[in-house]
Design a protein that fits this description.
Elements lengths: L2 E7 L2 E7 L11 H14 L4 E3 L6 H6 L6 H6 L3 H9 L4 H4 L9 H10 L8 H13 L11 H12 L6 H7 L2 E5 L9 H9 L5 E2 L5 H4 L6 H12 L6 H17 L4 E4 L11 H13 L4 H22 L2 E4 L3 E2 L4 H7 L7 E2 L9 H7 L7 E3 L6 H10 L5 E3 L9 H15 L17 H21 L5 H19 L3
Parallel strand pairs: 3-4, 4-5, 6-7, 7-10, 10-11
Antiparallel strand pairs: 1-2, 8-9
């Protein structure tokens, strides 16, 4: 049954059926829930800062309507199609990988008839939020309601109010960052600027295509990098100058951060002759697996040095075993929902970088993990000591109510709140942004309410912390 919400309207009680209960995710006991409600009400309407994600700048540059519900909800969202795939629904049935969808209503009906698969998942919360808050739907999605949903969503998508720029303002987004290749011209970002629109869509420098020797087309990418930057990237120094130049270009276009999606958090600090020899090996294509990993490790340290020079915040997202399903990768390429978390070392892996730059107060390195076992054992003690380190929020598979709760429980006692950086949504699904931030705000209000109920902090402190976790810490950490 959908949640039945009762609201006082004068002397009468109005009965309203909704997909989501107003007290969702708040504590079950009355005393703590009452405190959490008060805290949540103070932060629920604060502007959204989205400093890391994978939405597309051309959405806002061109401001065209989203074509249909499938392109909006199903195809861009790994959480959705990987769950469907796990239950034997093929990518062919979902028309994954096609530029133009031939049978969007058929795919939507397939999704709707399998909506029960998402019970208990964060995807269910995010989707129901969008369905209720953005499209006014108040009955559960199912095979029986598939066409009702499709028609209601399609009708709204045809209106000016549901174009990307209008939704940006409807969601009260203050800044939203994309994630971009160093070889990207950032033409869409330039088009946004030239249009005079006031939305802040910021690029983020993601150098993986030119710092990861295992990346498809790596050697060719290095040559293109040199052509774009006007540097000789056949030499180590020319290569580093080219990277620095591209970083400066991104910064001139509004970037405040870099992002590094390495297989591990390993870093290195090689002497220049050794680094140069390693560079020549990887660009020649003769480097073995261990040399490739050493090169990635060296480049994290080089990127930290450049961040100290140009002020860009450095994000490290390690620990994903990419493209685990070889058959899917061969047929469909990257980002098909087959990336799996792996164990990650931080204490020894980061030591070379931290020996070099760990005490720099002007450097900000934000660490993420897919390995929750490292929260209290490694990450919190590291961030609780080194001035340059901050902890990113629960990411990817941990971006869930339980994941957020575990994060706060495991890191706060050692790193505190102020060595974290608030929340970011890390999403490709634009309409899920307000839903994801709402989940985070409710979970933080609940965690802080428990501290108040247990007389560990006072409610005025909790209110201040709630705002910090929602808005102030992310604005400061990402220099927004």
């Amino acid at each position: 049954m959908e949640a039945e919400v009762f609201r006082e309207t004068g002397t009468e009680t109005a009965r309203q059926t909704q997909l989501l209960h107003e007290d969702r995710l708040l504590p079950a006991d009355d005393k703590t829930r009452t405190i959490a409600r008060r805290l949540y009400q103070q932060i629920r309407s604060l502007p959204i800062l989205s400093p890391h994600g994978h939405t597309q700048a051309d959405w806002f540059a061109n401001d065209q309507p989203f074509p249909d519900p499938v392109k909006l909800f199903v195809q861009p969202d790994h959480y959705i199609f990987r769950m469907l795939y796990s239950q034997g629904i093929s990518f062919e049935e979902l028309e994954i990988g096609r530029e133009k969808i031939e049978n969007p209503r058929k795919i939507w009906r397939l999704f709707a008839s399998n909506y029960h698969l998402f019970r208990g998942t964060p995807s269910r919360l995010w989707l129901d939020y969008s369905f209720q808050e953005q499209f006014g739907l108040n009955v559960r999605l199912s095979a029986d309601t598939a066409d009702l949903y499709y028609d209601a969503i399609q009708a709204k998508l045809a209106t000016p109010e549901f174009r990307p720029r209008a939704l940006y303002h409807l969601f009260v987004i203050e800044a939203l960052s994309t994630t971009d290749s160093p070889l990207d011209s950032l033409e869409s970002h330039a088009k946004i600027r030239a249009s005079g629109w006031k939305g802040r869509i910021l690029p983020t420098f993601r150098p993986d295509p030119v710092v990861d020797p295992a990346y498809e087309g790596f050697q060719a990418n290095i040559r293109v990098l040199g052509d774009i930057a006007g540097e000789d990237t056949s030499t180590w120094r020319g290569y580093l100058r080219a990277l620095a130049a591209r970083r400066q270009f991104f910064k001139s276009m509004g970037a405040t951060a870099t992002d590094h999606g390495h297989p591990s958090a390993r870093t290195a600090d090689l002497a220049e002759p050794e680094a140069e020899r390693l560079f020549l090996a990887v660009t020649a294509g003769s480097a073995d697996h261990s040399q490739q990993e050493l090169f990635r490790a060296q480049m994290l340290t080089e990127m930290a040095r450049m961040s100290l020079d140009d002020g860009l915040v450095m994000q490290i997202h390690p620990g994903s075993v990419r493209n685990h399903n070889a058959q899917l990768f061969a047929r469909y390429g990257l980002n098909m929902g087959a990336d799996i978390p792996g164990p990650t070392d931080y204490v020894e892996a980061l030591r070379p970088l931290l020996n070099r730059f760990g005490n720099e107060r002007e450097l900000t390195i934000i660490l993420f993990t897919l390995d929750e076992a490292t929260y209290s054992r490694e990450l919190a003690p590291l961030a609780g000591h080194y001035p340059c380190l901050k902890l990113g929020p629960p990411w990817w598979f941990q971006d869930s109510p339980e994941g957020i709760r575990r994060f706060r429980e495991l890191v706060t006692e050692t790193a505190g709140f102020y060595n974290t950086v608030g929340f970011n949504d890390d999403t490709r699904a634009f309409l899920s942004i307000p839903a994801r931030h709402d989940v985070s705000r409710r979970m933080d209000a609940s965690f802080l309410a428990r501290l108040v109920a247990e007389h560990r902090i006072e409610e005025d402190e909790a209110a201040e912390l709630a705002r910090q976790l929602t808005y102030d810490l992310v604005k400061k950490a990402y220099r927004l």
